[in-house]
Structure formats: C-alpha cells, structure tokens
Amino acid sequence: MTDALAGNRTFSCMLRRAWIAGLAALCLLQASAALALPIFARQTGQSCVACHAGGQFPELTPYGRQFKLNGYTFGERTIPIAAMATADLSKTRNNLDSNGMPINPKDGLPIFDAASIFLAGKITDKIGGFSQFTYSNYDHQDANGRWQGHWGSDNTDFRYVDRIIGDANDVVLGLTLHNNPTVQDVWNSAPAWSYPYISSSISPVARIQNLPIIEGGLAQQVVGMGGYLYWNKTIYAELTAYSTADGIWSFLSHGNKPGDLAHPQIYLRGYNPYARIALTHDWGPHSVMFGMFALNVNVYPNDSNALPIFDQGVTRYRDYGLDAQYEYLLEPHTITAQARYVRENIHDPDNLVLGDSTSGNLNTLRLKASYVYQSKYGISLSFFNTTGSPDSAAYGGSANFSPNTQGWTPEIFWIPVQYVRIGLQYTHFTKYLGVTTNYDGNGRHARDNDTLFLYVWAASW
C-alpha cells in the first residue's frame, strides 16, 4: 500500500510539473501569437478557421483546399515568414526493458521538442509555395549518450497554377515540385497530412513500427515533379514522378546525407511514378471525398555505414491505397472523419530487406473522427491496424517475426486562441508486433507501450 501511495504521489507530481511547463510555454507562445498573423492568414485576410476545419491545423476546409490547389496565390503578397514550436511530455506505461533500462529516456519530463521556420505564400499571380525547415531538439543520442539537435528540410511544395473558368467548366491546372509523397495532397486522409497530427517523438515505442513506404518512408528524401487538374470541384487527377533529392535538388533533403547513420540519404533508381484520383462533392455544410492512389518505387540499399550500394539491385515497393473524407462545417459544430487503407507489395529478389522470401506484403488501415465545438474544444478518436507477411529480417524485434500492430488513440484538445493548441493524447496498443502478450520473447506486452502524450503546439508571426 505504501508503494502504491508513493507511486500515486509521483504520478501526481509529474502531472503538476507537466501542466506548469505547458502553461508557461503557452504564455510565452501566446504573447508572440497575439502580435501578428501567420503567413496565409495575413495574405488572405482570413482567420485560421476559414482554411482549417474548426481551427484544427492541418485539416483543410473546402476554401483551404482551393487555396492550396490554386498554388497558395489567393490574396496579396506579404511577409513570407512564420514560425511554429512544440513543447510536450511523454509517459510510457512500462518504461523499463527486460534489462531494467529505460525505454523512453525523457519519460514523464516536459521538453521543448521542435521548432519550424516557414517560408511560404504568393510569389506571382500563378506561382506560390510552402517550405518548412525544422529543428528537432532531441533528435538522437551520440555514442556517449549526449543528445544531439538537428536542422533539416521539412515539408516543401512549390506550384505553378492556371485556372480556366467558363460557362460550364471550372478547371484548375497545376504543376507541383515537392519532397514528400502526398504532401501535395489537399485531403487529410492522405499519408503526409493524416492523423496523428502530432505525437511523441521521444518514445521509441509510441509509434507504429512498420508502415508502407508511402506513409513517411520517403519524406524529405525525394524530389517529386508532377501535374494535376481539378475539374468543376468534382474530379481531381494527378501524375507525379519521384527521384532522389540530390544534386541541384539537395535543398529538398537538407539534413540527410550519405554516411550519416542518424540521417542517411535514400537513393531511388530512375523516376518512380505516383498516380492519384479523387471524386469530391460539397453541399451546404457538408463535404465528401472518395479517392485512390498508387506509388511504385525502386530503392537502393545502404550498407552498414549508411552509404548507398548501387551494384546489388533494388527493392521494389508497390503501394495501392483507398481513402475517404467527410466534413461537416457549421458553427459552432465541426465534424470531420477520414479513412485510409494501403496495400504494399514488396519485391526483393536480392533479399536486401527481406530474409525469408523474395516477396512480402504490408497493409495498414487508419480510421479517425473528430468533433470541435466553437473552434475551441475538440475530441478525436483514431483506430490503427497494421498487418503483413512475417519475415525474420524485416521484423527481427518480434518473437513471431510479425509486423502486426493494432490500437486506438483518443485525444482531447483546446484551442484558446487560433494559433495555439493544447492537447492530451493516449495511444493504447491492443496488439504489438504480432501478439498481445510477450511480443519480444522477453515478457513485454503490447499494453506496456501505451503512451500518454501532453503537448502545446503554437504558431506565430
């Protein structure tokens, strides 16, 4: 009983410290947020709610999607700089591994997590862009266990757009140059902008461990060049080709380089196609989208020193996805829901990634719904499920050599002013790397990785 009371007191003290740190960060960030508007709000003269559903960045409203599809060119040119920062706290349910060592090195401690600088907005009447550079305060630990920060390119998207409006047609034609597959997309069911919009970066067990390559595996590693059209606010179609972001395109992958064990450069063979089609309909306060996408990429392996190997063949990933989104936007109520399913087929004839076979598959399902009241008080619930063929080389952390992981993420959040969000999120695993109990063979269970995540997320300038 004494140990239990002591544990409760420790947990209560931890929560008090977290809230004090969070409120202090809020005060500092709110002070600057009250002085100026972020770039796009300045440019268009609109509030954040005009572009973001219930003020919930990064979810876009129909107007926000039109703004992006038209190349970020609505409104007048303005100062093209903004900033964003996050402070947070992660608490892992069982923070000790089988050797008694901590899994989350900052467990239960408030941290300044990351900060971003944005250069974005209208360049000409037909050209605009969005570029982000991010500093991660606790990026990785060196050989001596010291934490190292890291600056690098983040999401980037430049566009050239023309819009043709006639008696019967409204056609948006655009070209896009970007560095993350689906970052150019305007729906939050697409991987680059999907839920969770923010999550623990310090706890290694809080994240889903194995995902198809389109779900972040090429982010800030590639250059994508493509074209799209949006016809009568009904049909969206896109074709894009991806290659390695090196040479003149290295600014898109800044912070990654060959030989860097913490941030190696990924190399693709040739040009790799991506296709996207979506059907959309808006009526009254309602908006709905049904879509599909496909990506085919050939990836060279890296050696143990994170240097590319160009003479041992490639691993081919073919990703196919179905997605859907619904929005209800009528103040004071905002309801949004997204769904995505991805099937990945892996062809690995030289066993560069797989060990038990020359082919495999990986499948993910993500469902999420949220409700926001008065653009201030929100709640979300998400379900995630990953399945795939077992492999001893690809999934060595599992006693069953399985990637299968499943769980739920509920979240509550508060938007006190339009550039600040405070949230409390909990990730609960019902299955981890194949099973519910003893997934690693050393007695660790799926629920041991459950993570409480408290955050303050703010933008300014």
How is this structure best described in words?
By secondary structure, the chain is mainly β. The chain has a single domain, classed as Porin (Beta Barrel), CATH 2.40.160. The protein has four helices and 16 strands. The protein has helices at residues 2-33, 39-44, 48-51, 62-69, and strands at 81-92, 111-122, 127-141, 147-165, 170-178, 222-231, 235-244, 272-283, 286-299, 315-330, 333-347, 359-373, 377-388, 405-414, 420-431, 451-460. A 16-stranded antiparallel β-barrel has the order 1-2-3-4-5-6-7-8-9-10-11-12-13-14-15-16. Strand 6 and strand 7 (235-244) form a beta hairpin. Mean pLDDT is 90; it is low at 1-37.
Quick take:
It contains 4 helices and 16 strands.
* Low-pLDDT residue intervals, each spanning 5 or more residues: 1-37
Helical residues, percent: 10-25%
Mean pLDDT: 90
Topology-level CATH name = Porin
Biggest sheet, spatial arrangement of strands? 1-2-3-4-5-6-7-8-9-10-11-12-13-14-15-16
Overall CATH class: Mainly Beta
**Beta-strand content bin:** 35-45%
Q: Using the 3D structure, state the CATH architecture.
A: Beta Barrel
Basic shape: globular
| SSE pattern | HHHHEEEEEEEEEEEEEEEE
